[in-house]
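Journal club prep, notes for RB
We'll compare a predicted complex against what the paper describes. Inputs for the glutamine case:
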Amino acid sequence: MTRFIFITGGVVSSLGKGLGAAALGALLQTRGYTVRLRKLDPYLNVDPGTMSPYQHGEVYVTDDGAETDLDLGHYERFTGVPSRSGDNVTTGQIYWQVLARERRGDYLGATVQVIPHVTEAIKDFVRADVGDADFVICEIGGTVGDIEGLPFLEAIRQLGNELGRERSLFIHLTLVPYITSAGELKTKPTQHSVKELLGVGIQPDMIVCRAEQPLGRDARRKIALFCNIRESAVIQALDVDSIYAVPRSYHAEGLDDEVCRHFALENAGPPDLSVWDGIMARIRHPDGEVTIGVVGKYTSLLDSYKSLAEALTHGGVANNVRVKIKWLDAEIFERPDSACHLEDVHGILVPGGFGERGAEGKVAAARFARERKVPYFGICFGMQMAVIDAARNLAGLTGAGSTEFGPCEHPVVGLLTEWTRGETVERRTSDADKGGTMRLGGYPAELLAGSKVARVYGTTRIRERHRHRYEVNVNYRATLEEAGLTFSGMSPDGQLPEIVEYSAHPWFIGVQFHPELRSKPFDPHPLFRAFVDAAVEQSRLM
Ligand code: GLN
């Protein structure tokens, strides 16, 4: 029997609902339950794929090729359950579906309305494909009171009613601000937010309170009284030193106990949090520290590099060191005498990116790493820029570039219009819509036996997630290999370069995919583990 937990947010946004949902999923797993996590996003974009990283943060790509909200990354990092395209839906997708049905005549002449047609489509999404999961944790994006969120709240209200209390639970996450001049925590915003929720017919069963100061007995009692829940269902969520401390902290505050009590699962054995305690012990007591320079474009909104930053932390956990990230705007490296910004780093990482701005700076950073023998990790765009450096400065193709920036003499990175996925041929054109025209999701690659990357993975067959329009041009392979750049990973048909490396460099690897999407604190990605290890080596030399 699958139980559904709905998580809403109140008072302000950015309270960490996604993390809260992920941590609750992890806690239920420590009690032996299986979970699925889902997110309902109220915006009208069909998916976040076309949204600016400055506004929306990272686009998280699932193995089955969906471009989703970054919260799905938290879900996967905390639970290890691979997210799927059906785990994230937006208002845009729901309406798209409803309107397509209307055009097909599926509604048999009925007047198509938000209730019941839109709400039914939302409910179908929540219930679809849950398999035999014990729990589905469903986060509702946005804040209660937003106009866009109303159809979602109405849909989960109906679901709560249909499933009954024994199969549904509503958790509301709010902020309890501390007013310095009064020296007090204020519960009023929470009370108002719950009123708002009651106005759409949802009585929360539990309230999780984000607060900077501990909630005293009084505040707790007040919230319980005014919001109509028992005191033990008011859970305080104080700030913690690492996101991986959240499961332990929520457990200490009784979150999972209260959830189990609600569902009458009190006889379940005590949870085993040793994995999380082990991770935190390593994060809190590292043996040393390394600095990684991340040369990117969206460094003013670090949410754009969420999975990347986490994967570096995981690489640190694997090596028992703290990884300090030095965020560097790529454009710096387009100015003379800028190499000094890279002098003190133990590794250079050029992450994924789009567009011409900053690209030359990234090529310069790759060149610096190659010439100075500093560990280099190029991810997607970072691989493409390293290939441009090799072409120009090792193979003598001065006119080398990427067609992403316009025509060039030697398109060592170019738009490929046709490729295969298993048995099927996939196509894109240069003037296609921007949404959904990339090579997206998991693809296999074959690694060159004996290469560095084959040693890192410990295998020669891998599968990694992609999100890009351009590909390294295989027609330049021979020229570039002659110049010293080994193509150590290829698509099974040998057409798409997936990994490049220099055998004569301590650690220089470029990958066309996004390994950061698969890394977990309890299972660090081999490339991040090995890259941080190489940075540790480098720190010994400096
Ligand atoms: N802009 C490049 C492309 O589309 C790289 C994309 C990325 O780094 N994710 O191919």
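Talking point for the session: The mean pLDDT is 92.
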